Amino acid sequence: MIEFLHNIDSELLLWLNSRHSYFFDRVMFFISGHWEWVPLYAVLFGFMIWKYRWKSLWILLAVAIMITVSDQLTNVLKSAVKRPRPCKDPVIGQMVLLVNDYCSGMYGFVSAHASNTFALATFISLLFRNKWVAAGMLCWSSVVSYSRIYLGVHYPGDIICGAILGAVLAWMTYRILKHLHRIAV
Fold first, then answer.
1. Could you say which DSSP state residue 84 is in?
2. What is the CATH number of the domain that holds 36?
3. How many domains does the chain divide into?
4. Which of 27-41, 88-102, 111-125, 142-156 has the lowest mean pLDDT?
5. pLDDT tens per residue across span 164-180
6. Of 104, 109, 99, nearest to 147 (Cα)?
7. What is the domain extent for residue 125?
8. Which of 28, 44, 161, 163 is the most buried (most CB within 10 A)?
9. Burial level of 56, CB count in 10 A (0-12/13-18/19+)?
10. pLDDT band, very low/low/confident/very high, at 185 (cuts 50, 70, 90)
11. Which positions ≥6 away from 159 have C-beta within 8 Å?
12. Which residues pair with 84 in a beta bridge?
């Protein structure tokens, strides 16, 4: 069964990863970065301050802890599972198209990008309870996560499991914060 799922994951990765263009190579490499999203984070924090005033500091602390836990859990899972990234897989590695010869660490299950972005997207969606905010955050986290497949550094399964992990952590963080600080949302 595991072999069957891995084969499907590999085929889907190779199909998605094979659609490259010079323009999208640059766009996806940019989207996959960390510091490029600081303006988005600043805007989100500004809305938190506007809506929650002094409670926004507690919210920011909860988000920082949630992202740290998400990031560390993905590292623990990568070390435990030891599934090579597609770009380092001895079977399909030579078929994966890389952008700028970018291929980070050895292992990829689960994706920290997917976990962290879906954690933030889910938490913000729960916090603001606005369908447009939720749709925007879901699109953002999906595009960031897809960029990791496009770049050849994650299988779709790494992304899906990372997204689930992030969403669960966000839901737990939101419930704990709501209980502890009685945030009216």
1. B
2. 1.20.144
3. 1
4. 88-102
5. 999 999 999 999 988 88
6. 99
7. 2-181
8. 163
9. middle
10. very low
11. 111, 114, 145, 146, 148, 149
12. 107
